[in-house]
Specification:
This protein has helices at 2-5, 58-67, 85-93, 107-118, 120-125, 154-160, 196-205, 208-220, 233-251, 258-267, 269-276, and strands at residues 14-21, 34-40, 45-51, 75-78, 97-102, 128-136, 141-151, 167-177, 180-190. The protein has 279 residues and is of the alpha+beta class. It has a nine-stranded mixed beta sheet with strand order 3-2-1-4-5-9-8-7-6, with helices on both faces.
């Protein structure tokens, strides 16, 4: 934590918070290690981590994780598990903003937001912005997204009294892979002002915690295959892996892979020392 603080990251930081289970770290009656991480999408760095108690879930771990961080001016994105009033209030007290995914765990709020976007007359009466993205690949995959952002109406706040809520977001998306088309709609709430592009970019950036942290830990560090499972060893190793990944991210170029850089550091002491000097 002290080392991360020396990196002097800017205050306008996007922090994605998500949990990961190390699948093979269970030991008899003990559950596998479940770690919630705070990840900077811009810098691909793990800012902090918190272990989830065996008899609890991410809802109790996230407030402990947030308490470790200086979040002034940052935007925090969390999936539906962390969409809780207490967490929203804690983020606001740290002078930061939030974008929360909204699903069935917030039953009535989720229903009201969904119905509101279905009412064209209500949408016309509110301030609304639209942002669209289209992504394609050489392998025949096409993905289109719309980010419809509206100013939170007074009726929502009167019924739900959600802390610092300012905008509601609907994200219809269409994915087509080799002629097969699927569609879905996702909903979010945010304390940010009306800015569809900024909010849309943050929602997309949230997935970096999966692609640039959890996936890399599994592929480059074989985290899910690890059988380290006694006592505090799984948690200790998780911290070391996060720190090693941060060091490698600080060193690698745009086209370097973490796996190749680890291998090269094992062959070349000069490169190894260069990586370790980032501490």
């Amino acid at each position: 934590m002290e080392w991360v603080k020396t990196l002097k990251l800017p205050s306008s930081l996007h922090v994605a918070i998500d949990g990961k289970i190390s699948r093979h770290s269970f030991d008899g009656e003990n559950n596998p290690l479940h770690i919630v991480s705070a990840f900077s999408s811009e810098y691909r760095l793990v800012l902090a981590q918190e272990k989830v108690s065996d008899k609890s879930n991410e809802i109790t771990a996230i407030p402990k994780l947030l308490s470790l961080l200086d979040l002034q001016g940052a935007v925090i994105t969390i999936d539906a598990m962390g969409c809780q009033r207490e967490i929203a209030e804690q983020i606001a007290q740290k002078e930061a903003d939030y974008v929360f995914s909204l699903k069935g765990n917030q039953g009535r709020l989720n229903q009201d937001v969904t119905l509101m976007f279905q009412d064209a007359d209500v949408i016309k009466s509110l301030k609304c912005e639209l942002y669209e993205t289209v992504d394609g690949s050489e392998h025949g995959c096409l993905e289109e997204r719309q980010y419809r952002v509206i100013q939170c109406p007074d009726s929502i706040q009167e019924h739900h009294n959600w802390p610092h809520l300012k905008t509601l977001i609907e994200v219809p998306s269409m994915r087509e892979i080799k002629g097969d088309r699927t569609q879905e709609k996702r909903y979010y709430i945010s304390s940010l002002e009306l800015d569809a592009k900024k909010i849309g970019d943050l929602i997309r950036a949230h997935w970096s915690v999966e692609n640039s942290l959890h996936w890399v830990l599994d592929i480059s560090f074989r985290d899910d295959d690890s059988r380290i499972r006694r006592g505090n060893a799984p948690q200790n190793i998780a911290v070391i892996k996060h720190m090693a990944l941060n060091l490698l991210q600080k060193t690698k170029g745009k086209r370097d892979s973490i796996k190749q850089l680890r291998k090269a550091a094992g062959w070349d002491n000069d490169l190894l020392f260069n990586i370790l000097q980032k501490i």
